[in-house]
From TrEMBL:
Domain RNase H type-1: 8-95
PANTHER family: OS05G0353850 PROTEIN, REVERSE TRANSCRIPTASE-LIKE PROTEIN
Taxonomic classification: Eukaryota, Viridiplantae, Streptophyta, Embryophyta, Tracheophyta
Organism superkingdom: Eukaryota
Molecular function GO labels: nucleic acid binding; RNA-DNA hybrid ribonuclease activity
Pfam families reported for this sequence: RVT_3 (PF13456)
Gene: LOC107832774
Classification via CDD domains: RNase_H_like (cd06222)
Protein name per the record: RNase H type-1 domain-containing protein
Species for this entry: Nicotiana tabacum
Signal sequence residues: none
């Protein structure tokens, strides 16, 4: 098992599917920029996995970008994990949704204090 890397960022006026897609895209982009490879990716929104495999006309631009980034990263495996198993990611998403400043990304090398309660 490798190092843990996390981030959060507020997204204005979005639903959970778009937030999950954006988080995947941003995480892949960060991994590529920082040379973080090999990767293990867990997603708690199973519909995103289906969209990555089969496509989706509505969200095709971001799905295509995620596929491209994944290819650049050596096609890392993406697994579905239930929200209960991925509580830190769920807490980061909830905390990010509270953010009033939407253009700031916070990075974490270890799970933040609020996620350790």
């Amino acid at each position: 098992m490798g190092d843990w890397v996390g981030f959060m960022r507020g997204l204005p006026n979005t639903d959970s599917l778009r937030a999950e897609l954006h988080a995947l895209w941003m995480g892949l982009k960060i991994a590529l920029e920082q040379g973080l490879s090999p990767l293990m990716i867990d997603i708690d929104y199973e519909h995103v996995l289906k969209m990555l495999k089969h496509g989706n006309l509505t969200h095709n631009p971001i799905i295509s970008e995620c596929r491209y980034l994944m290819e650049q990263l050596g096609n890392p495996a993406i697994d579905h994990s239930y929200r209960e198993q991925n509580q830190v990611a769920d807490l980061l998403a909830k905390e990010g949704a509270k953010k009033e400043v939407f253009d700031k990304t916070q990075f974490f090398a270890v799970p933040p204090v609020f996620a350790n309660d």
